[in-house]
Amino acid sequence: MDFAELNRLLELVSQGELSVESAGEKITAARQAEQSLQESSVQSEGVVDVPGVTLDLDRQQRCGFPEVIYGENKTAATIAATMQAQHDNGQPSLATRISAEKAAVITAQLDGVVYNDVARVLRWNLTEGGPSIPGRVLVISAGTSDLSVAQEAVETLRWMGITYECIEDVGVAGPHRLAAQVDRLRAADVLIVAAGLEGALPSVVGGYVDCPVIAVPTSVGYGTAFGGVTALLGMLNSCASNVLVANVDAGFKAAYNAGVMLRRLKQLPEQKTQVESQELQA
Hints:
single chain; 282 residues; alpha/beta; Rossmann fold; 3 domains; five-stranded parallel beta sheet; 11 strands; elongated
């Protein structure tokens, strides 16, 4: 309630034209309406309505990276509209689990969107410049059959602006292949290892390095592989203490968490400088 309206109510009360109780009720109602409007404004801050989607534009501020689009069961029109809304608000887009048919429709509509058909991922970076987060991630696939999951991780790292390298087809059936790459393993800050069948490769990799190894079980193997469950259980029971495990076929989740780790490490020197500056001022 503004000052003029409040003053008018007080004049009515003083003239006997309005009771104190009625004036109080009007003031209370006005305050409640203002509070409701403020709460609505807070709830809608950072949110954009796209048909069928409530896009969380504040996700980048809260969590470090923008909202990612899970494309399974979403229409091409919905995905394209969501990516366009992100782009209009200065955020890069990543959409996972996108069929080739949907991708063809979306890339025809949005100039600059890149589709990785192996990973089934759409990516729309604001620029194709250098990495924005220091650090290096090494993505390893045990076999060629695991490559789609490894590539999903790669596209996620590209979206985040993280330097990466790949090593392909170095599974435990030919251990000499991995041994030849030990120097590259040890040069990485985080490793992502995609493996199916019995899921043994992350444990072997973990025994060579002093950094986090994010294991990704893949749904590759014969019947008793149970769609990746056997690899998942094997990785969860790894003897290597530095092995963490993502969900089956979740290359995106593995890369996202690698990005979160590196982003936090980047912030530590900045936070230390701020603390030292505050201590000097005190």
